Amino acid sequence: MRNYLADLTVDPNDSVSICWTSGTEAPPKGVPRCHYDWLAIARVCHDAAELTSADVMLNPFPMVNMAGFGGLMLPWLMSGCVLVQHQPFEADVYLRQIQDDERATYTIVAPALLARMMNEEQLRESFDLTSLRLIGSGAAPLAGDVVAAWETATKVEVINFFGSNEGTCLVSTPKQIPDAHDRSRYFPRNGVARGVIAEAMELRLVDTDTGEVITESGRRGELRLKGPTLFAGYQVGTSATFFDAEGFFRTGDLFEIAGENSDFLRYVDRVKDIIIRGGINIAPAEIENMLAAHPSVADVAVVGVPDEVMGERTCAVVVPTAGTTPTLDGPGGIPAAQENLVVQAA
After folding, report:
1. 168 and 283: one domain?
2. How many CA atoms lie less than 13 Å away from 240 in the CB half-sphere?
């Protein structure tokens, strides 16, 4: 062992971890990440949450998860604050840790937990969450109505994270975008909040049919990026198909330029998830966000189903809130946009 260490050379570009991911594709691909990659991601998450040594962070994710490792553990090392681990997830225990056991000041939660707490008023009001100054959320598009209701009820603002194992790293903070509805759907066009990482990131939207770089608002294109948060390539030799000729990573995520001054990017959906009905492109994520705001909907997933005439129709698989039954009819029913929505309870 002594001889091995004496001859060992260490470089910050050396791979320190391999994450296995398939996203919406298969088979899984190995994503090697080096020391420099993780330092860049840690800086983004640390700065977005404005962490100091006085903070207490509560981590409800396993360390193989991007939120657990890159979003909490590495920022903890950078800030020198307290990190409390919580796994496997148990909502009552987690909320009790915030209230009594740890008095956490910062945590990251899945969007589903935000929606559950807004739908279950008794659960939300059973715990004192006043120690929290911020929370982060991501892994799925945030519903603006849910984020706004959460912030009104708890006075705790939400940071919107959009990331992947490959290093896609978009962040919207309350300081950047004060309005909760806007923050839930918009990201800065430079990608991250501020600082040297923001200056080093390069982002562009590319028309998936023509390959043209998009510069005008309202036109959708694939997000492509390069910069210090991004990985160098997959472990298995398939990297060439995921990088364009100029070295930008092809994320497979569909965005559009948005905002009054074209300052933001708005997430639309995964490129491959788009439903095409009679030649019209429908983004499932947009419908999911609309339905998630309905009081009868606890969770929802929208998929395309074959249709002999139109090619595809839109099917919403809905988890109803307790004591409700999803329906398209009558007052309070789920809206069937363009008579194109089939609802199936799950």
Report:
1. no
2. 1
Where residue 298 sits, what CATH number does that domain have?
3.30.300.30
Q: Residue 214 corresponds to which tokens in the numbers above?
A: 């998009």
Amino acid at 278: G
Compute the C-alpha angle 114/83/137, nearest 5°.
25
Angstrom CA distances, 89 to 72, 120, 122, stand at: 16, 18, 19
Q: Tell me, letter by letter, the H, E, C secondary structure of 140-207.
A: CCCCHHHHHHHHHHHCCEEEEEEECCCCCEEEECCCCCCCHHHHHHEEECCCCCCHHHHHHCEEEEEC
Measured CA to CA, the distance from residue 148 to residue 182 in angstroms comes to 10
The residue type found at 302 is V
Structure tokens at 6: 């004496």
The answer to whether the beta carbons of residues 254 and 222 sit under 8 Å apart is yes
Domain boundaries, position 334: 275-345
pLDDT string in tens for the chain (346-residue length): 677 888 888 899 999 998 887 655 556 788 999 999 999 999 999 999 999 999 999 999 988 888 899 999 999 999 999 999 998 888 889 999 998 888 999 999 988 888 888 878 888 888 889 999 999 998 777 888 889 999 999 999 999 999 888 988 899 999 989 999 999 989 988 755 556 677 788 899 999 889 999 999 988 899 999 999 999 888 866 565 788 999 999 998 899 999 888 889 998 888 777 787 766 778 787 788 788 878 788 888 888 888 776 777 888 888 888 788 777 765 556 555 444 555 555 5
